[in-house]
Amino acid sequence: MTFAGKVAVVTGGSRGMGRELVEAYAARGAHVVVASRKLDNCVAVADAVRLRHGVRALPVACNVSHWDQCDALVDAVYAEFGRVDVLVNNAGIAPQYPSLDQVGEALFDKVIGVNLKGPFRLSALIGTRMAEGDGGSILNISSMAAIRPDPYSLPYAAAKAGLNTLTEGTAKAFGPRVRVNAIQCGLVLTDIAAAWDPKERDELASTLALRRCAEPHEIVGAALYLTGDEASYATGAVLRLDGGLP
What we know:
45% of the residues lie in helices and 16% in strands. It contains 7 helices and 7 strands. The chain has helices spanning 16-27, 39-53, 67-81, 105-132, 154-174, 198-205, 216-227, and strands spanning 7-11, 31-36, 57-61, 86-89, 136-143, 178-185, 238-241. It is globular, with a radius of gyration of 17 Å. The mean pLDDT is 95.
């Protein structure tokens, strides 16, 4: 698969799955936008990608839970490149809490903001421009929590369920020139997984059909496919990549 000359925007692009995606698009010739909350981290990734792959890389500080920062991100990208071919709504947070009655309004709003409000705003702005121009592809990184919620990440699960709905709705809104799809991820061993309790992780992994967690490249391959030309008839789809979660 090639993305030579295309422009790919990845939110949450400075670490974890987002960084893996930035590297993958750049390795295939795409100019990349690394968007995340901390500018220093974005700059470091952008510099490394630029040096390694010889593509243009734009670092942008953006907390996607803030409407105005989403708007500023879009303005910066179009000022630099004049187009977006791929948008990956990857940024996400899933803070834990002791019980549902201990979920405060600030935590709830933050989880909904990062996981749902941001993707909505970015998809609305970029999807509209894509539809009016040469088209493009949007990919939402969802979670199996959307259909297998548990009591300890319920606001996150609700947000990801909303993201699945957003996927189908925006596919209809921006078709036929723009395709919108989602990947429902299970357990993925990025650097973020280092914070997981190893015993709980292994116990959950043992219940999967594949009996293991995913490596990042196993998600990246599907992302490249869904946003590439080979998936030209895929839109409004939500792909489960969970290793066979029961």
